[in-house]
Specification:
The protein is of the alpha+beta class and 237 residues long. It folds into two domains: 130 residues, Ribosomal Protein S5, domain 2; 68 residues, 2-Layer Sandwich (Alpha-Beta Plaits), CATH 3.30.70.890. The strands form two sheets. It has a three-stranded mixed β-sheet, covered by helices on one side. It has a two-stranded antiparallel ribbon with strand order 4-5. Helix 1 crosses helix 3.
């Protein structure tokens, strides 16, 4: 799901020597090496896919937190892909841009489209398959409001993934699949009450909650205040 508000801003400048460089990574902890920065990787991928023999200089203003579970690396990748495509005359369609952004995420944090797909297409997007890449745009309820609570904590995606269970009981999988189906139905029918009931992650959240001090209390406070549901955003925090 994409939400409005904080965002990354990427500026690209055309150069004729074919190089892709990062002029400003947006944060001291982010790499200036274009081959290790999602914006640089996505920019290069667009140029290669388009067959355009030029280069770009990339500057990033980070609005999303690092290791914050809000898709910061994906935001930079998508913004760079869209910017470079616009710079060279928009030869690539959205499906091709998605492939470029996924390529960037794959190198930095593993191949997945959970963040880049909604950031590129907007709203709520279901990733049905990675190979081949197949995403489905879902409805976004008009009255749905999202509140993000970001504690003063960083949690790397690799660490959050490391605690996920290797084996999952059949009953847990059945319940999880039921909740996923209910979320899709709730979005399509604009049923916010059903959406709230379906926000009951049986797999990732129980494993990751131990890495997030205060998460359980924060969710309980939100529910007491009238929230329909609550969960961990991405890998957290």
């Amino acid at each position: 799901m994409a939400v409005s508000g904080a965002c990354d801003r990427v500026t690209v400048t055309r150069v004729e020597d074919g190089s892709v460089t990062i002029d400003e990574p947006g944060h001291p902890d982010l790499p200036r090496d274009a081959a290790a920065n999602t914006a640089g990787i996505a920019a290069r991928a667009v140029l290669l896919r388009a067959g355009i023999d030029v280069g770009v200089r990339v500057s990033i203003i980070k609005g999303l937190p690092l290791c914050g579970g809000q898709g910061g690396s994906a935001a930079s990748a998508v913004a760079a892909a869209v910017a470079v495509n616009r710079l060279i005359g928009e030869p690539l369609d959205p499906a091709a841009l998605l492939e470029c952004a996924v390529e960037a995420e794959a190198i930095v944090s593993g191949r997945h489209a959970d963040n880049v797909a909604p950031q590129l297409f907007g709203g709520v997007v279901l990733v049905r398959s990675l190979d081949p890449l197949d995403v489905v745009q879902l409805a976004s309820p008009s009255e749905l409001r999202i509140v993000l609570a970001h504690p003063d904590q960083k949690l790397r995606t690799a660490e959050a993934r490391s605690v996920l269970p290797q084996f999952i009981a059949r009953a847990t999988v059945v319940k999880q699949l039921g909740n996923v189906a209910a979320i899709v139905a709730a979005l399509e029918s604009d049923d916010l009450q059903l959406l709230g009931r379906a926000m009951d992650d049986q797999i990732a959240e129980p494993a990751r909650a131990v890495l997030l001090p205060g998460f359980t209390q924060a969710r309980e406070a939100a529910m007491t205040a009238g929230s329909l549901g609550g969960s961990i955003s991405g890998a957290g925090p």
